[in-house]
Amino acid sequence: MVDIYWVAFVKRSKNRLKILRLLIDKEKSQAELHVGSGLYRTHVRRTLLELEQKSLVKCLNPKDRIGKLYQVTSKGKEILKKI
User: Fold this and answer.
1) Mean pLDDT of 1-22
2) Which of 27, 43, 60, 71 could form a disulfide with 39 if both were Cys (CB 3.0 to 4.6 A apart)?
3) What is the pTM of this model?
4) Distance between terminal CA atoms of the chain?
5) Which candidate, 37, 59, 32, places its Cα nearest to that of 48?
6) Is the model's pLDDT at 1 over the cut of 90?
7) Measured between alpha carbons, how far is 25 from 40 in angstroms, rounded to an integer?
8) Could you give phi then psi for residue 12, rounded to 5 degrees?
């Protein structure tokens, strides 16, 4: 069961919601998220860091400096279902 706090956290930022929705289908890189969302790269990166800190998104290859892939966690999927 997802706490209402997490739903509110995602809904407070249109960038968070946009990034989570783009990642729901399959894993994507930061560059793919930049193109798909229309957000600046810095906004995409900041949003990914916020989502990663809250365990809503997971980096699949954190040791790579270039071409990091991100995917939504099960917690993130539950929140999207609630929204």
Assistant:
1) 89
2) 43
3) 0.89
4) 13
5) 59
6) no
7) 21
8) -65, -20
| CB contact set of 36 (below 8 Å; sequence gap of 6+) | 22, 28
For 9, 13, 42, 56, 82, the CA distances from 24, given in Å and listed in that order, are 17, 17, 21, 11, 14
41 Cβ neighbours under 8 A, 6+ residues apart: 30, 31, 34
Tokens of 77: 């999927």
Q: Which CATH number does the domain 4-82 belong to among 1.10.1740.10, 3.40.50.300, 1.10.10.10, 1.10.3720.10?
A: 1.10.10.10
- Token pair recorded at residue 38: 């229309």
Closest to 55 (Cα-Cα) out of 6, 21, 13: 6
Q: What is the total residue count of the chain?
A: 83
Give 41-44's long-range contacts (Cβ < 8 A, gap of 24+): 43/15, 44/15, 44/19
